TrEMBL record:
It comes from Metamycoplasma alkalescens. InterPro entries: FAD-bd_OxRdtase (IPR050260), FAD/NAD-bd_sf (IPR036188), FAD/NAD-binding_dom (IPR023753), FAD/NAD-linked_Rdtase_dimer_sf (IPR016156). Residues 8-180 form the FAD/NAD(P)-binding domain. It holds the Pfam family Pyr_redox_2. Its cofactor is FAD. The gene is MCYN0515_2. It comes from the Bacteria. This is NADH oxidase.
Length: 254
């Protein structure tokens, strides 16, 4: 079993991907990292099962019109989707995992990767600077905490979400990089660089599909008790008179 959080984890996963002794792979967690890992293992001819407690993949960033297409592509490529499946336990012998037990049954495996998201590990800062209800670190526009000697960046820190008009963590690599640049500049030069805010812009290219989103999906809005409307339509990526065109699917939410 292996978690997937950093460069060293990725190196270990690559070693197992190249090892022909590991044929049956289970990926737990159908977010960005999980879906990308599934494609990587399929390219090396592995028997891959993707497990998630949600009823579809990547539910926070994309609505069903887009994830349905992705799931069809994955199934066509031989990926086994175990959705609506809660992991109950792992079984193994001699220190190696052999089965993943879910509420829907047992899955035989040689290797398991956990890509189930993160929660802020900020207990050490309790009483030192303010944390929100989810234990993320409260920051200002300079990425400075309520303790003026401490700055916070990345997945554990609040940022201003322009699409939501509120402060909250946006757990994306692009956000982590930008908050790092902002904090480093302000630590070195004084608070001279304000964060412009974030929209959660993201993209993924797997199984022959290029997908991108910004803001939040309709499903995510409903979970936040927001009233939204939307329109879904198809168009071409280039004018019709061009030598080649591709169909693009759009969804606009307001």
């Amino acid at each position: 079993m292996q978690i997937c959080k950093n460069y060293y984890h990725a190196k270990k996963i690559l070693e197992h991907n190249l090892d022909n002794n590991y044929k049956k792979i289970a990926v737990v967690g159908a977010g960005y990292i999980g879906v990308e890992l599934v494609e990587a293992f399929k390219k090396y001819g592995k028997d891959v099962t993707l497990i998630d407690v949600a009823n579809r993949i990547m539910p926070f960033y994309y609505d069903h019109e887009f994830t349905d297409l992705m799931q069809e592509k994955m199934k066509a490529d031989g990926v086994k989707l175990e959705l609506n499946s809660k992991v109950i336990e792992f079984k193994g012998t001699n220190g190696k995992v052999t089965q993943v037990i879910t509420n829907n049954g047992a899955i035989d495996v040689d290797y398991v990767i956990l890509s189930v998201g993160v929660r802020p590990q900020t207990k050490i800062l309790e009483g030192i600077c303010d944390l929100d209800e989810g234990k993320a670190i409260v920051t200002n526009e300079f990425m400075q905490t309520t303790n003026p000697d401490i700055y916070a960046i990345g997945d554990c820190a609040q940022v201003f979400n322009k699409a939501m008009n509120k402060k909250m963590p946006i757990q994306l690599a692009t956000t982590a990089i930008r908050t790092g640049v902002t904090a480093a500049t302000n630590i070195i030069r004084g608070n001279v660089l304000k964060s412009p805010g974030y929209t959660g812009a993201n993209g993924i290219s797997v199984f022959g599909l290029n997908m991108a989103s910004v803001g939040i999906s309709v499903e995510a809005a409903k979970k936040m008790n927001l009233e939204v409307d939307s329109i879904y339509f198809k168009d071409l990526d280039r004018p019709e008179f061009m030598s080649s065109t591709n169909e693009v699917l759009f969804k606009v939410i307001w």
